[in-house]
Amino acid sequence: MGGERRLGRTGTRRLERPGPQERWLWLAFSLAAWLALALAVQPARAFTPFAVEGGASEHRRITDAALACRWADPTACWSAGGLDRLEVALKRPDITAVTLTDAAHCDSGDLAPDGTLPRGRDPAALETCRDWIRENLNLALAAAEGLVDARGAPVQDMQDCAWRVLRPRTALCDVDFHLGRALHAAQDFYSHTNWVDQPVKPGDVTIHNPQGLGGSGPIDWLAAEGDEPPPPGLMSGCFVFFPEALFCHGRTRHADLSKDSRSGPETPPVGATPRGAVEGNFPRAIDAATGETARIWTGFHARLVTTYGEARGRAMSCRVRGLPPSMCGSGPSVAPSSTSGAL
Q1: Domain carrying residue 298
Q2: pLDDT-derived band of residue 52, with 50, 70 and 90 as boundaries?
Q3: Which tens digits make up the pLDDT trace of 182-221?
Q4: Buried-exposed string 102-120: b where 16+ CB fall within 10 A, e elsewhere
Q5: Is residue 8 part of a domain?
Q6: Residue 6: inside a domain, yes or no?
Q7: Does residue 39 lie within any of the structural domains?
Q8: Can you tell me the distance from the alpha carbon of 246 to that of 224, in angstroms, rounded to the nearest whole number?
Q9: 240 lies in some domain
Q10: Is-cis flag, bond preceding 123, omega within 30?
Q11: Among candidates 120, 105, 276, 98, which has minimal Cα distance to 197?
Q12: Count: domains in the chain
């Protein structure tokens, strides 16, 4: 996976060793500065994690559409409380140290108009993003072992996972953390690549208006278990830092492809970015990300059962989704509530 980029270095001038009070002040200042930077970067970095006009954040809208309790399959039903927890985990990649990590957002997998690799582009950028998703799902699977005991009874470690940095993590917090990272990257994939974009007329293709692949729904390549390269022509935009014109000179930029935000509360939604505003590209990205979210959770639930056994795996799945044990029976006869808010 791509390493996390540092934003700067301290100078070489010798300084006196600060006392405890000064160290805490510098720590508080550093955290505040990083948070301010992250908040400034995120609106152009990914589906916004904060509330937008007409309702919740895009990540929450996508996740609700995929996982809220309105489906016949009980394994696809999350409680409102479970979705609230997952939303916190989904926000983290936009306001923490991985804000500038390409793999966490499927960025910098760009091509030149003729399909060649521009100078400075990592040819494995998109594979690295897929690896990031896979690795975080594997870590979430491993962490799930601590959710229930050998009989499938929940382990009572119900600590609030929201923004805990100084207290010990629990199994549930770890599952949320890694599942949120995986889903964030997977959802961003459809905003940041040209997979769902409608084709561009050949004469209109430029480095800042690359060809769209016209894909519909989740891409098979993300679900594949092998190491095959991405489909021909698949790309995402370059992002290093602002201004993109300086750091991504001569390359397709993140802003050229992103479909991160909507223009208002209209239904169906209309994209606010140049690429998202044309040919229905924004709602196509939302639909594909919703399908991908459902696919990832269905696969993760199945892996819990395969890895830990039927009874324990279902109990773990129930715990992650924030459901009462009565909704985690052994067969599909268990009926979910018609709305997530009823749980």
Answers
A1: 55-342
A2: low
A3: 999 999 999 999 999 999 999 999 999 999 999 999 999 9
A4: bbbbbbbbbbbeeeeebee
A5: no
A6: no
A7: no
A8: 36
A9: yes
A10: no
A11: 276
A12: 1
H helices within the chain, ranges in order? 20-41, 58-67, 80-95, 125-143, 171-192, 220-223, 244-247, 254-257, 281-308, 310-321
Could you report the per-residue pLDDT of 255-273, keeping only the tens digit for each? Answer: 999 999 888 888 888 899 9
What residue type is assigned to position 12 of the chain? T
The rounded distance, in Å, linking the Cα atoms of 49 and 93 is 9
Residues whose CB falls within 8 Å of the CB of residue 85, separated by 6 or more in sequence, listed in order = 161, 162, 176, 322
Query: How many residues are there in the chain?
Result: 343
Other beta carbons less than 10 A from residue 130's beta carbon: 21
Give this prediction's pTM. Answer: 0.82
For helices 171-192 and 80-95, the axis angle rounded to 10 degrees is 70
What rounded mean pLDDT belongs to the chain?
A: 81
Question: What DSSP string describes 243-307?
Answer: SHHHHTTTS-BHHHH----BSSS-SS--BSSTTTTSTTHHHHHHHHHHHHHHHHHHHHHHHHHHH
What three-state secondary structure class fits 52? Answer: strand
Q: Which two tokens stand for residue 60?
A: 């929450």
